[in-house]
Design brief:
The chain is an alpha/beta fold. It has one domain: P-loop containing nucleotide triphosphate hydrolases (Rossmann fold, 3-Layer(aba) Sandwich). The protein is built from eight helices and 16 strands. A five-stranded mixed beta sheet has the order 2-1-3-4-16, with no helix packed on it. A five-stranded parallel beta sheet has the order 6-11-5-12-15, with helices on both faces. A hairpin with a 5-residue loop joins strand 1 and strand 2. This is Guanylate kinase-like domain-containing protein. Pfam families: Guanylate_kin.
Length: 304
């Protein structure tokens, strides 16, 4: 057994077993653009403004509470070490879940949107659940799964919700079953999570590959986001202010400090097009090349 410390530093054991400790589909899926495949509609699963607003409020609340301080902010990531082994997905196995993590405003949602538009036959988001009423132009199972508050809370209590939150009196969340539905279709499910939700998806069934989207330095962000806009609670587009960029940078540093041991890959989003290309490359490697994963995810007959 070997020991994996934060950011991949390792100490090899005397006996040289292909194991380490890490601190705490169905056939190939083409990652290149599919020819003549139309982009997903604006209301496709995973891009609801209400869910993004819910998350933005969560990010700001965490920051203002003082992450890492006593009694507030992001929870501790748990046990300091866990055993990891080399794993390579077989063509007969479902694809690994891809999880994007990053502070609000860094471009996580836009990267996910571009990734799915690049090849919707390969990439897809899970359809979230909500307790709000269905609108006339919506269809159950397309924009959302519309459920009662009792059903939603039952999913939460039974630990079937990977993430959930409240916005304007309505509950929103993404369930394990919704993610599994995408994977069962032979597609790569792409979702973004708050960092404290990472541990909920780290299961043998989902085998998530976690990618941290990191902002560039302040001076570069001021230039690159000069004309970019953010979404407020009042549905008004407003330009980024210096304090928004500082909040983004501060939160990114705290996320990386507290949860960096769970990040399989880090992408600095200083250029959206370049970051998207890096994202495609990282996902392809995650699905096709050997990666270190917790030993509990791999049974003895599938270890490599």
């Amino acid at each position: 057994t070997a020991f994996r410390r934060p950011r991949g530093r390792s100490i090899a054991p005397a006996h040289g077993s292909p194991r380490r400790l890490r601190q705490a589909g169905r056939g190939p899926c083409c990652l290149l653009p599919a020819p003549d495949v139309p982009c997903l509609p604006t209301l496709a699963a995973g891009f609801r403004r209400s869910m993004r607003l819910c998350r933005r409020k969560s990010h700001l609340g965490q920051l203002r509470a003082g992450l890492g301080g006593a009694g507030g902010g992001l929870p501790a990531p748990g046990a300091p070490y866990e055993e990891v082994v080399r794993y390579q997905r077989r063509p007969s196995e479902q694809h690994r879940l891809v999880v994007l993590v990053g502070p609000s405003g860094v471009g996580v949602n836009e990267l996910r949107r571009q990734l799915i538009e690049l090849n919707p036959e390969c990439f897809q988001s899970a359809v979230p659940h909500t307790t709000r009423s269905k609108k006339s132009y919506e269809m159950d199972g397309r924009e959302y799964h519309y459920v009662s508050k009792e059903v939603f809370e039952s999913l939460v209590y039974s630990h079937r919700m990977l993430e959930h939150g409240e916005y304007k009196g309505h509950l929103y969340g993404t369930s394990v079953d919704a993610v599994q539905t995408v994977l069962d279709e032979g597609k790569i499910c792409v979702m973004d999570l708050e960092p404290q939700g990472i541990q909920l998806v780290r299961t043998q069934e989902l085998k998530p590959y976690v990618i941290f989207i990191k902002p560039s330095n302040m001076s570069y962000m001021k230039q690159s986001r000069k004309n970019a806009k953010i979404i407020t609670d009042y549905f008004v587009d407003m330009k980024f202010k210096d304090e928004d960029l500082q909040e983004m940078e501060d939160l990114a540093q705290k996320m990386e400090a507290q949860f960096g041991q769970f990040f399989d890959h880090v992408i600095v989003n200083d250029n959206l097009q370049d970051a998207c290309a890096q994202l495609v490359s990282a996902i392809q490697k995650a699905q096709e090349e050997p990666q270190w994963v917790p030993a509990t995810w791999v049974s003895s007959d599938t270890e490599s």
